[in-house]
Amino acid sequence: MESNEVKKDNGSVSEKEILWTKLSHTNSFNEDSQQVFNINRNELLAIKSDNNYYVVSNRCPHAGLPLKGCTIDSQEQTLTCVWHHSSFCYKTGEVKEWLKVSTFERILGKLFLKGNKQAEGMMDMEPIPVDTFMTKVEDDHLWVGFDN
Question: Which has the closest alpha carbon to 121: 140, 99, 143, 148?
């Protein structure tokens, strides 16, 4: 361990200004390229795409629904939420498409949510990027980094 690293009891390592947490052995992604981890009250989605690893929030910023099971497009470097078809760059979190639903689906959604104060305006929300997190592979394990 380098002099600027501090080992924690929970499998985390503090390195400079980043707290790194071990997620899983990289071989586990051969069977399941999308895996969910709960770290410090964050539900994270780890993705393997073209032998690279990325970690994003597992909650779509539109409605808070899970992104696990999303469609991954490694050529476009995007993930697409199965619920309302918003797509995001899995490297940066940038919104590529927001609420890609038909006019009929949008109207149906507004009717369904009508009267629900908590859901008011959900179909008219401004685009919000998905949170992304730093990753590294060390000793055949995927690690996620948080600002310390």
Answer: 99
